[in-house]
Recover the amino acids of this structure.
């Protein structure tokens, strides 16, 4: 005999099928589904929320609440009762929602009349994709039976959520939000954060039309006046801006020196004396310099050339009396520029700048470094946007995802405002956490390191108080540069990092290019399977000069300090020994040259290619340390392209095969007493870090932005319990162990969000 729950569920499922197979549009179907469930379950109201945007749930259909609220209610995962269901991935029944500590009142819904609440998650492949809720006016305890029925219904809904109709609806919503009176553009993010404000279109380049001067003397006076005024204004602006210390200050100082450079000024004055107008003389001086420097391979000089163009434009503005600055009355401005020099930001009251959009731009662009230091989000590389935006227009920017919204609608504005508030809250939380130890409740210290690529990442040294750098992806500066950096240039990057790290551990990884990491100055090899092709250590062993130069730069940057060098994508001991020998030869050469050498040199490798796991005992006798690159290791273990969106949900690192392999690695490293860390994305995700700690890992390296969340998790964890639980989990044959781990965290009060 069927249980009453199954009988009732089957009745509902029959009706569900009728509705979904009907001719209505998907939004109408969803409304009909909710009102049908409300009626069948004898509830008074119901709602269906779907995850639209990572951690956000949006109301897609409702019954019994105010009219016209569909798509207007958004909740963060974890926020309110609905968010709690999504976060815990478990049903929640509450007799009186108003008395529940997590209840979050949404007046626009009109939920005043309802008391009892039941919510069940809608999940797909172990991931929450929505929440289904019912409410009644009376205080009422929903029975286990009713919850079971709702769970069955939610399984049906999870199929519907994955349907093309819902995907089309979501895409349509995204498009509408980007369009109806507002447009959405995608660029690349050079500095993260959110901003909302009125656009100011930054100076357009002036075209010099008058070439020959009528009166040289007058022209010289004009030049002198403009030059003096420009420098006076620059000094004032710099002094008025609180810049603190760091690379951005050096950049601005260099710029100021440029503007005052006597040689440059003399060239312009000479050009005027030879008969040119002051404007034409500035252009000629720039052209001369450009001819001399543009052929150079030195990226530092190339960057200087940008600054010079900018100083020239600035001077042209003073000469014409048109500084090209449009003015608006607003306390929140978003500066939009075609290109920009580092000092240009100072033309505006930086305290009012909420964002910067640059049509051209590279991550190493000086203005981006200065903006980042001032906490301004920056988005670059959006073709045509400079002509699109008019001064005064409203603009919203999402510097995390790299989106710019022109004339954003209320929904986008609300979303951006909410994210700004969240970011402030997060910064406050991070600041509060900074000096607290990353120690579990039962007293085990977990060392937390940051992964570094761009200079910006170094800021996390001061904001997180981490234990050091567990992975320096040295290819990032190579990728950001227009030409291959030479030994001196590399040494400068590496030394900067060593200086910032003070005495903390820093692990340098040798160049890991190829596959998805391409260098702009190298042609793409066009391989069929680049992820398992000529990449990483395979390239640098074949192009030994590149490896040798990099080793030399490491050795010089770490003179007098401990140097840790790690080789990526190593496939066997012989390959590791080969790479290591290159480093040792360079060390010998440095000694013979009489150069200062590091006080100690440790050599390690990344565990990314599965073959090394089968030679680990031997490898651990020869390596000073190992670090597991779970991103690559997982793609090779599961034979699953890490960049293929169709596969992202198919295999999970939180599953017995992968976790068992990690268990094997950490056990062996402990037996051999070799330092072992995890530096792939897994380490930065609280629930995955929880599993790693349960397996025995004590060194985790992650993006600086994840460190606060992982530290919070660690500080709420009892290590012994999770170690026992993981042992049981490893015997499970489920596709993913994620739901079990999340439930475990939830039951044990471990903070994983
Ligand atoms: C990894 O593969 O996990 C890793 C840390 O290296 P990358 O992501 O840079 O390939
Ligand atoms: Mg890798």
């Amino acid at each position: 005999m069927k249980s009453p729950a199954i009988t009732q569920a089957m009745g509902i499922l029959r009706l569900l099928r009728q509705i979904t197979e009907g001719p209505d549009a998907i939004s109408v179907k969803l409304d009909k589904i909710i009102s049908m469930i409300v009626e069948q379950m004898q509830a008074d109201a119901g709602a269906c929320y779907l995850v639209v945007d990572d951690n956000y749930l949006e109301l897609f259909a409702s019954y019994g609440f105010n009219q016209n609220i569909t798509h207007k209610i958004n909740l963060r995962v974890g926020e309110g009762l609905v968010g709690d269901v999504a976060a815990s991935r478990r049903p929640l029944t509450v007799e009186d929602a108003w008395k529940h500590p997590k209840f979050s009142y949404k007046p626009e819904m009109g939920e005043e009349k309802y008391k009892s609440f039941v919510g069940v998650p809608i999940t797909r492949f172990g991931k929450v994709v929505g929440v289904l809720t019912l409410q009644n006016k009376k205080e009422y305890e929903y029975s286990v039976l009713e919850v079971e029925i709702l769970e069955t219904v939610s399984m049906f809904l999870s199929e519907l959520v994955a349907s093309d109709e819902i995907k089309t609806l979501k895409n349509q919503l995204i498009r509408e939000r980007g369009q109806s009176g507002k447009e959405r553009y995608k660029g690349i993010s050079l500095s993260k954060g959110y901003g909302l404000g009125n656009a100011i279109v930054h100076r357009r380049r002036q075209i010099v039309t008058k070439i020959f001067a009528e009166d040289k003397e007058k022209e010289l006076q004009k030049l002198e006046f403009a030059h003096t005024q420009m420098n006076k204004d620059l000094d004032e602006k710099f002094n008025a801006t609180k810049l603190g210390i760091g690379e951005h200050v050096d950049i601005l100082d260099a710029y100021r020196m440029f503007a005052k450079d006597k040689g440059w000024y003399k060239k312009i004055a000479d050009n005027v004396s030879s008969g040119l107008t002051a404007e034409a003389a500035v252009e000629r001086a720039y052209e001369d310099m450009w001819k001399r420097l543009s052929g150079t391979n030195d990226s530092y000089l190339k960057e200087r050339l940008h600054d010079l163009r900018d100083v020239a434009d600035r001077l042209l503005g003073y000469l014409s009396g048109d500084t090209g600055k449009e003015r608006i009355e607003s306390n929140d401005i978003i500066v939009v520029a075609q290109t920009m020099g580092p000092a240009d930001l100072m033309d505006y009251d930086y305290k009012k700048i909420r964002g910067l959009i640059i049509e051209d731009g590279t991550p190493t662009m000086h203005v981006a470094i200065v903006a980042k230091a001032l906490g301004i989000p920056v988005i670059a590389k959006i073709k045509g946007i400079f002509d699109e935006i008019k001064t005064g227009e409203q603009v919203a920017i999402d510097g995390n995802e790299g989106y710019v919204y022109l004339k954003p609608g209320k929904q986008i504005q609300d979303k951006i405002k909410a994210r700004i508030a969240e970011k402030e809250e997060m910064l406050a939380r991070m600041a509060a956490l900074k000096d607290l130890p990353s120690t579990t409740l039962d007293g085990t210290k977990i060392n937390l390191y940051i992964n570094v690529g761009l200079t910006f990442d170094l800021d996390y040294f001061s904001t997180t108080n981490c234990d050091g750098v567990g992975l320096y992806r040295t290819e990032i500066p190579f990728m950001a540069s227009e030409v291959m950096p030479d030994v001196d240039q590399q040494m400068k990057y590496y030394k900067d990092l060593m200086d910032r790290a003070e005495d903390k551990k820093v692990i340098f990884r040798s160049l890991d290019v190829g596959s998805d990491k391409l260098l702009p100055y190298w042609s793409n090899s066009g391989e069929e399977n680049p992820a398992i092709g000529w990449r990483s250590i395979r390239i640098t062993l074949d192009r030994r000069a590149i490896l040798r130069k990099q080793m030399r730069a490491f050795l010089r940057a770490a003179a007098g300090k401990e140097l840790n060098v790690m080789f990526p994508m190593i496939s066997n001991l012989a390959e590791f020994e080969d790479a290591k020998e290159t480093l040792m030869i360079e060390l010998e050469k440095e000694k013979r040259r009489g150069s200062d050498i590091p006080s100690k040199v440790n050599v390690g490798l990344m565990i990314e290619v599965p073959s090394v796991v089968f030679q680990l005992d031997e490898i651990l006798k020869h390596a000073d340390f190992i670090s597991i690159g779970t991103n690559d290791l997982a793609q090779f273990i599961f034979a699953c392209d890490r960049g293929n969106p169709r596969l992202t949900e198919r295999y999970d690192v939180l599953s017995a095969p992968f976790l068992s392999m990690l268990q094997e690695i950490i056990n062996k490293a402990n037996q051999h007493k070799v330092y072992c860390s995890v530096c792939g994305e897994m380490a930065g995700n609280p629930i995955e870090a929880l599993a790693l700690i349960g397996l025995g890992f004590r060194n985790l390296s992650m993006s600086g932005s994840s460190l606060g969340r992982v530290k919070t998790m660690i500080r709420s964890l009892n290590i012994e319990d999770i170690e026992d639980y993981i042992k049981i989990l490893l015997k499970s044959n489920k596709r993913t162990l994620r739901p079990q781990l999340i439930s475990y965290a939830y039951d044990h009060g471990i903070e994983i969000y």
Notes: Residues 471, 473, 512, 608, 629-632, 679-680 surround phosphoenolpyruvate (ligand 1) (CB under 6 Å). The chain has a mean pLDDT of 86. The first strand starts at residue 45 and ends at 53.
